[in-house]
Amino acid sequence: MTLNVAFLGLGVMGYPMAGWLSKAGHDVTVYNRTTKKAERWTSEHRGTLAATPADAAAGKDIVFTCVGDDPDLREVVLGRGGALAAMKNGAVFVDHTTASAGVAREIAAAGAERGVECLDAPVSGGQAGAEQGKLTVMVGGEPEPFARAEPVIRAYAHNVRLIGPAGAGQLTKMVNQIAIAGVVQGLAEAINFAQQAELDVPAVISVISKGAAQSWQMENRWQTMMDGRFDFGFAVEWMRKDLRICLEEARRNGAELPVAALVDQFYADVANIGGRRWDTSSLIARLNRGR
């Protein structure tokens, strides 16, 4: 079924995600703060360009967003010329930004006043997952709008699940990032240890990756970590933003996150040596500084 949809935010994730919607046959209108990027998208995909979030959202069945952080999201959705005020009654708003649970609930409440159903739907899988159309999407909201949005979301996702009410998607993404932070630091220490012990790292990985130590990070990042290559993937500055959100939420709900807090400081060290845009696997760089 072809729907009229809008996609606001054409960053490294949103650009290919909007592309998959177009490839699926939907009528896509895009908006991006940097107009040149939106112009490039429309030159590569079937779709139209809007000058403002409101212009993009007007009359659409579903409006998607994927922007940077809470302030960006509020501006695009709730600000002057924002999307929500222009959306029609009965439309669905789907936010793929990794943001706070608080802003998700704030937008859901504002949507309810206008007859717009809102879903917070952060994603996991990184740029590669977006480009391959194989993202994981964790969703907060109500079952009825989720049922309408899910088939459309599957244009760029292979794993989509409704977790709970508004905010639950963002809370689940926090769980995801907390788990990743510990795994990447553990892998960085393990590879650094193997190097210091003068072991054959590929041989070591080939053995331990078949046992309990196996992880996505090990399978996909050990080689580049060993080689010191980090000019790709999910940037350190983005991970620090995500961990900040996690730590702020933990202070509210009473959860203890000692490892996540420590890894956040390690990422600060990486940023200070010039790694703000390096992949998150660059945690090993701070361990190798003395070598």
Please, could you describe this protein's structure?
With 291 residues, the protein is of the alpha/beta class. It folds into 2 domains: 4-165, NAD(P)-binding Rossmann-like Domain (Rossmann fold, 3-Layer(aba) Sandwich), CATH 3.40.50.720; 172-287, Orthogonal Bundle (N-(1-d-carboxylethyl)-l-norvaline Dehydrogenase, domain 2), CATH 1.10.1040. The protein is 54% helix and 14% strand. The protein contains 13 helices and 9 strands. It has helices at residues 14-23, 35-44, 53-57, 70-78, 101-114, 126-132, 143-153, 168-196, 201-208, 216-227, 236-253, 258-275, 283-287, and strands at residues 4-8, 27-31, 48-49, 62-65, 92-95, 117-120, 123-124, 135-140, 157-164. A 6-stranded parallel sheet has the order 3-2-1-4-5-6. Strands 7-8-9 form a 3-stranded mixed sheet. Helix 8 (168-196) packs across helix 11 (236-253). It is globular, with a radius of gyration of 20 Å.
